């Protein structure tokens, strides 16, 4: 069948999408991150259903598969800052630190279509510090994917970083 992927030439050559480096002939594994590799994993599995997440190193987190829990507006995921609803989550066994299961599995490093450099998942556990997403301008105190190369000032909140392809055409 062949590949049917296509992209508009002006979109493909935008500075925030392509850094101008030609990758023809470069093996894909040289610039694509594997979410299962140790350097990109966000947690260590301690035992069945119990993890040690890099963002919460002092305590272990236990999976909670209960989906009929009462809605609590004050209980929010530390990564995406969205409320906890009928979601499978990981909760700390000693404090109120909570992550959606999907957020707990976010890779620590990723290559994203919205930026030419690799992005690193950053955590600021101070609830009174907020940052703005470069893509959507949303202000959040959740986790951010940031660029650590080339003097970039790129911050993507985990919601925007979860979008796999650019979705805005200009």
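^ Assign residues to that structure.
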């Amino acid at each position: 069948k062949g590949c049917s992927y296509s992209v508009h030439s002006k979109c493909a050559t935008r500075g925030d999408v392509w850094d101008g480096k030609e990758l023809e002939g470069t093996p894909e594994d040289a610039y694509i991150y594997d979410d299962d590799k140790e350097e990109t994993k966000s947690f260590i599995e301690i035992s069945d259903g119990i993890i040690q997440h890099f963002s919460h190193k002092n305590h272990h987190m236990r999976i909670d598969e209960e989906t009929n829990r009462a809605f609590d507006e004050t209980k929010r995921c530390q990564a995406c800052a969205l409320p906890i609803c009928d979601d499978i989550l990981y909760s700390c066994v000693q404090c109120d630190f909570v992550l959606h299961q999907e957020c707990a599995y976010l890779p620590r490093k990723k290559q994203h279509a919205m930026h030419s450099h690799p992005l690193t998942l950053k955590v600021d556990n101070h609830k009174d510090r907020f940052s703005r997403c470069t893509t959507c301008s949303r202000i959040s105190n959740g986790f951010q994917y940031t660029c650590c190369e080339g003097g970039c000032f790129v911050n993507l909140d985990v919601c925007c970083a979860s979008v796999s392809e650019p979705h805005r055409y200009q």
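Confidence is low (pLDDT under 50) at residues 27-33.
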